Amino acid sequence: MMATQSFSLLPSPQLPPNIASVRPNILRFDSSKLTTKCGRHRRQNLSIRSVFTGIVEEMGQVKDMGLADHGGFDLKIGARVVVEDVKLGDSIAVNGTCLTVTHFDAEEFTVGLAPETLRKTSLEELERGSLVNLERALQPVSRMGGHVVQGHVDGTGVIVSMEAEGDSLWVKVKADKALLKYIVPKGFVAVDGTSLTVVDVSDEESCFNFMLVAYTQQNVVIPTKKVGQKVNLEVDIMGKYVERLLLTINTPQEKKG
């Protein structure tokens, strides 16, 4: 039976033995110093170019990351499934962030990270050896197993507790109130690109939680993270559409004349 109250802070559970947090060779950089060629930060492109479902296809591993010879910031990821039919310019969601493939072979692919992406997401915390959730962009013939995920990260949250209940895992995340208003009990949220159902929302604590069943724990990166680490959040776009519509309706229209 599902717990009725899950916001108590308890020690982190013992994760399944085949899941290990890999943290060698920490790479440090200052994303605030990365600028566009004209010296200004560009605004994030919010047009919908690709759509995802939030159903993770595989966990990849960061092989290398850092400033490239061309002056940008590259992220190289080892993978098998998502590179099977990949082409240059394809979109792959990495921890829920839609990124463009710039190079690939049978065992790895490379994507470029814009300065705004580094500032907006938790990708700047990745290290050589880190595990990441991977999903290819949705094709029209694919099953819609999760919900509509754009790969446009709205912001980050922080894991504040992880609590085992049987073979399932409760995860509680603290989010900015500007994002929390779009998160509702039994609604959808993408956490590191994983489509999840929200269980409880606490406005007082500015937190929400969700439960990972045993299968999900084996196939996404969230259980490998620790309390205090960031996760990428993308809220259900329907809430933002409704808010925008209501604001338009309630805003007095200028009279023509």
UniProtKB/TrEMBL annotation:
Coiled-coil ranges from the UniProt annotation: none
Pfam families referenced in this protein's UniProt entry, alphabetically: Lum_binding
CDD domains with a match to the protein in the record: Riboflavin_synthase_like
Gene Ontology terms, MF aspect: riboflavin synthase activity
Gene3D superfamilies: 2.40.30.20
Pathway(s) annotated for this protein in UniProt: Cofactor biosynthesis; riboflavin biosynthesis; riboflavin from 2-hydroxy-3-oxobutyl phosphate and 5-amino-6-(D-ribitylamino)uracil: step 2/2
The protein's name in its UniProt record: Riboflavin synthase
Organism expressing this protein natively: Raphanus sativus (Radish)
Phylogenetic placement of the source organism: Eukaryota, Viridiplantae, Streptophyta, Embryophyta, Tracheophyta
